[in-house]
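Supplementary notes for students who missed Thursday's class. We covered one full example, reproduced here. Read the sequence, then the structure, then the short commentary at the end.
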Amino acid sequence: MTPSAPRRRGRPGYAARSRRALERGPSLVGTELELDVGSVAHGGFCVARHDGRVVFVRHSLPGERVRAVVTEGGEGDRFLRADAVEVTRPSPDRVPSRCPHAGPGGCGGCDWQHVDLAAQRALKASVVAEQLRRLAGLDREVVVEAAPGESDGLGWRTRVEFAVDPRGHAGLRRARSHEVVALEHCPIARPEVLATGVLERDWSGRRAVQVAVSSTGGRAVLPQPGVDEQAETLVERVTTPTWSGLFAVAGAGFWQVHPGAPAALVGAVLQALEPRSGDRVLDLYAGVGLFALPLADAVGASGAVVAVESDPVAADLARDNAGDRPWVTVRDGRVEDVLPTLPSADLVVLDPPRTGAGRVIVEQLCARRPRTIAYVACDPAALARDLGYAAQAGYSLAELTAYDLFPMTHHVECVAVLRPHSLDEAPEAPENHAGADG
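Structure (token representation):
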């Protein structure tokens, strides 16, 4: 290797791993702790302290006293992770788990099976509010709304990728582990998903199997995601009080997994943006056109919608879904590459992946001075970080709506509405946003 050649950034070598292990000190995994549980944390944990050190505790609730077993961490670590294996002082919000595979050592698919549904939403609201305070300097009251048609938080997941264990059984992984828990039942999956027989069939030789069912009755069983993922195209129907339409979606492509989610989000975005005839709209991370199509119908042929999507299959489907709307243009490519080539717009909607949009994209959008930006976010920390960037670039959070589109899990979906503020009204955003990416 010449002096100017770059170093390869692979996995740390044995010496580096050994040095870190020594720095961490003896492992505490398996140690039992008596803990008084404090507030909820982002990620499905609650926070406790033991001998001055933070412990992130799964399967617990604020206010409980529990006996917990350490699952990760050593003497030298700043924090530990643990599972509550016995509750000696239960919260009034605790309920019997609805899943035989939930709990310590079980499936990691759900975080809050032991929590009353209304209390789950209150916990999620407190997480969103805390992230807004910590990362964006915003003090907002947050209410998490149920998804349309939601009743008991079960039977909602329309798309599930099951892992396959060494015996060929389908299941889900343990929390923070690659180990597969073979399932006999999954109470959050749609009955139509389980009716495929995915949990009874032998999947030997497969890494995973993905099952998707659509709102119009179609279904896809993909025994080798990544290879067979485009073998099926499903049709989804979205109906809101002001708009209705059909979408073709790849069997393993991205689509909201709660049946009430697409209508809830489309309705929220339309209400937030208030599109007018002739408006120019940017739809970033557009997928198959969930927001682009209703916005196109709202702005009409005198307007224009540009949708940007990096997945070529989803981009092609978005073009097909646009049909006879020639004022809709779909651009293939990553948003960070395509955005600098786009004209200004009156309205913007962006629905980025869990990592968020990031500083560069937020600043470029705000520099275009759109009338309103609707930011659809699946991670409250990334959203709060980006709201901080927007504040520095001249845009304030006007409204925020949160939806419980993933009952029994810690995930929550937010729609944030951003509008420009005058320079003398510009809030001071926190300078350090590094924690949002953790």
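Commentary. Residues 117-136 form the longest helix (20 residues). The first strand starts at residue 32 and ends at 36. If anything here is unclear, bring it to office hours.
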